[in-house]
Write a structure and sequence with these properties.
This protein has 5 domains: 82 residues; 106 residues, OB fold (Dihydrolipoamide Acetyltransferase, E2P) (Beta Barrel), CATH 2.40.50; 276 residues, no CATH class; 33 residues, no CATH class; 120 residues, no CATH class. It contains 25 helices and 19 strands. The protein has a 5-stranded mixed β-barrel with strand order 1-2-3-5-4. Strands 11-10-9-17-18 form a 5-stranded antiparallel sheet. Strands 12-13-14-15-16 form a 5-stranded mixed sheet. The longest helix is centred in the N-terminal third of the chain and has 31 residues.
Length: 686
């Protein structure tokens, strides 16, 4: 062990980020919330391990230090969870809502949506009122212009953030907790401006600037091309249609829509090259200053402004940190792109937002960068091709190679999180990314420089041409036969095993690195043998899904669409809810739905009238009701009241019996699963 660890000298720094992330991951994987005694014991253990590092020597010292860092990561995630704590609405509210607009975007149903702070709800004490709420604006809102900083009032519905649609699925409550979002809802009534936006804070000024620039771009570039240009330049994705969004996802080009490392890298690269070669064109200046350092000094504040303009969401912050680390490395005469610099960026991101570890964007961006560095380090072993007659093909080869490496590295994470594999994603990226780098991002910089002088047309032409080409590629690739296929949702252990195995192969020095291949193989085995639930029950009690030989059959063709779509995606199915409803496997009569699973009779009842028409359990072993069941019954009952406590339910066929697991069983008692006692709140007369 000592010889193996000595061989790692000079290569151990990236493991600090790995150990810190491991501690963060353990915190989020726990089924219970640690108490003060747990944190005290962990702090004592971490301090003890740190003190023992030097006496332990070269053999055990790095291992003890790694354990201490993992303990610090665990404590960091727990501290962050408590620091961001804000009130969460514990009941369904309908009534007046007042608040200040802090963000404007579009909902999944493609309607405008506003996020409010300084929230006021009727008859609710400030200490119990959510710090932020998010409201989708349905109905005719043509007279309302959402301006960040303005205070608005409306009448709408609010409810607590929703839990997973099935046990083990994505938990929106956790995301909302770390964003300080205490309630979500909608309104169909007019939104009124209570007071216009004042000058306000710098954050609100930048937000207004972002939306103003976005509107200006969409006014000058029509259609989805303008929406894509606005998304690339300001992070405002509200101008893209649902069809364009779907095409970008199915062609594996959606990373262009979300401001991330691609945008930041292209922007910083263009500004860096512009300044560096500009300095080189002035010989007296080039002989006296380092053009590279001057370029880095200019590119750094440009990247910071882009971060502020784009809204400072998690993906943009991560991209800025990575770009800033590279630029600072240049200023310090260090190599910009190394495993050490990526580790520093990961450490900074985790220290600022440890919850970012479980974010798909964090996982995919760092997977791509680490894989690219590892792959290009391997290319150094090849003979120098600069004197080859085929050297003009080197840029094309580099583009193809980097796209292939990045696509391969991110594919497992995209498949695990989104249940989709874009088979032609490499082709789409090869056709779109060069245009993004040579037309759209340079055009955005030129527009910023020449727009105030009234010389905006050349830049707008570059941006529009590039965006229309990218959309054309996305639509063409997405519509091709076999463009996408669905994959089954993996068990929770798959991505941690895959990640740790890949990191071992990449970071460990020596032949023992090959041992890391075992973990991805185990992960793949778990994935392909994953069992899907035979029965799924939505937390509303209004929808059930039963797995048959033909696939999952649903109890209704419309309604509870979010749960239905996610169930089918997790099954690895690409059919619609209507198609799943048309399958055979359920016996339906009026508002009663019956199924038989391993000898267990399941009865789903929709509505109070249908419930009143059956005696006891209607001959079922499991009774599912979309309302509150008023009496005790001689069977397992999941009515609306119980489902609000347990969340969605999954049933697995094990040992010839139906084993039921609830969301509450899987998520356990965590900060984000502890809403106040529920009660209904309805304004009189409404």
């Amino acid at each position: 062990m000592q010889e193996a660890l000595i061989a790692q000298r000079g290569h151990l720094f990236p493991w600090i980020a790995v150990c810190l992330g491991l501690g963060v991951g353990i915190y989020f994987a726990l089924p219970f919330e640690p108490r003060a005694a747990h944190y005290a014991a962990l702090a004592l253990a971490g301090a003890t391990l740190t003190l023992l590092v030097r006496p332990a020597g070269a053999a055990l010292g790095p291992i003890l230090l790694g354990l201490a860092i993992a303990a610090a990561g665990f404590g960091l995630a727990g501290m962050r969870g408590h620091l961001v704590a804000e009130p969460v609405l514990g009941f369904r509210y309908y009534g007046p809502i007042s608040g200040r607009i802090v963000d404007v975007d579009r909902s999944i149903s493609d309607v405008p949506r506003v996020t409010l702070d300084r929230v006021v709800l009727e008859d609710m004490a400030p200490a119990r009122t959510p710090a932020q709420v998010r409201v989708s604006l349905h109905g005719d809102q043509r007279w309302f212009v959402a301006a960040p900083g303005s205070t608005v009032m409306l009448t709408g519905h609010l409810s607590p953030p929703n839990g997973p649609v099935e046990p083990g699925d994505f938990d929106f409550r956790r995301l909302a907790w770390f964003e300080g979002l205490g309630a979500v809802g909608y309104t169909r009534s007019p939104v009124l401006i209570q007071s216009p936006a004042p000058e306000g804070s710098m954050a609100l000024v930048l937000n207004r600037l972002r939306l103003t620039l976005s509107q200006v771009v969409r006014d000058r570039i029509a259609g989805d091309a303008g929406g894509l240009a606005a998304a690339v330049m300001t992070g405002d994705r509200s101008g893209l249609s649902v069809q364009a969004n779907d095409a970008m996802r199915d062609s594996n080009l959606y990373h262009i829509v979300s401001i991330s490392g691609t945008h930041m890298g292209m922007l910083v690269g263009f500004v860096f090259a512009l300044i560096r070669y500009g300095v080189a064109l002035v010989p007296p200046l080039a002989l006296r200053v380092s053009a590279k350092k001057v370029a880095a000094l200019v590119a750094l504040p440009v990247a910071a402004f882009y971060l502020a303009l784009a809204g400072r969401d998690m993906a943009t912050e991560r991209a800025f940190v990575m770009a800033a680390v590279m630029l600072i490395a240049i200023l310090l005469d260090r190599q910009a792109l190394t495993m050490r610099s990526v580790a520093i960026a990961a450490l900074i991101v985790l220290l600022i937002r440890p919850e970012g570890l479980i974010n798909p964007g964090f996982q995919m961006s760092f997977a791509a960068v680490v894989a690219l560095i590892f792959a290009f380090q391997g290319l150094r072993l090849l003979p120098d091709q600069r004197e080859s007659p085929w050297r003009w093909l080197i840029p094309l080869g580099v583009l193809v190679f980097s796209s292939l490496v990045a696509g391969t590295a991110t594919a497992p994470y995209a498949a695990a999180h989104f249940n989709r594999v874009a088979h032609y994603g490499l082709i789409a990226n090869l056709l779109a990314i060069p245009v993004m780098g040579f037309l759209v991002m340079p055009g955005a910089v030129i527009l910023a420089l020449l727009g105030p002088l009234g010389l905006e047309q050349p830049a707008l032409w570059m941006i529009e041409t590039g965006c229309r080409w990218i959309l054309y590629v996305a639509e063409t690739v997405a519509s091709a036969e076999g463009a996408i296929s669905a994959v089954i949702a993996p068990p929770a252990a798959v991505l941690p095993l895959l990640t740790l195995g890949a990191l071992w192969v990449i970071l460990w020095q020596g032949r023992a690195r090959l041992a890391g291949i075992v973990l991805p193989m185990i992960a793949l085995g778990l994935w392909v043998t994953q069992e899907r639930p035979a029965l799924l029950i939505a937390d509303s009690g209004a929808l059930i899904g039963v797995m048959t030989a033909e696939g999952r059959v649903l109890s209704k063709a419309r309604g509870d669409g979010f749960a239905a779509d996610n169930w089918l995606e997790n099954d690895g199915s690409v059919v619609t809810q209507e198609e799943a409803f048309s399958r055979s496997g359920l016996q339906q009569s009026e508002r009663l739905t019956r199924a038989d699973l391993a000898g267990a009779a399941v009865l789903h009842v929709a509505g109070e009238t249908a419930l009143a028409g059956i005696a006891d359990c209607g001959g079922a072993d499991i009774l599912i009701v979309s309302v509150v069941a008023p009496t005790d019954r001689p069977c397992e009952v999941f009515d609306l009241q119980r489902l609000r406590q347990t969340g969605a339910v999954a049933g697995y066929l094990r040992a010839g019996k139906l084993d039921l697991v609830t969301v509450a069983d899987v998520t356990g008692d965590r900060l984000w699963t502890r809403p106040p006692p529920r009660r209904e709140r309805v304004v009189a007369g409404q």
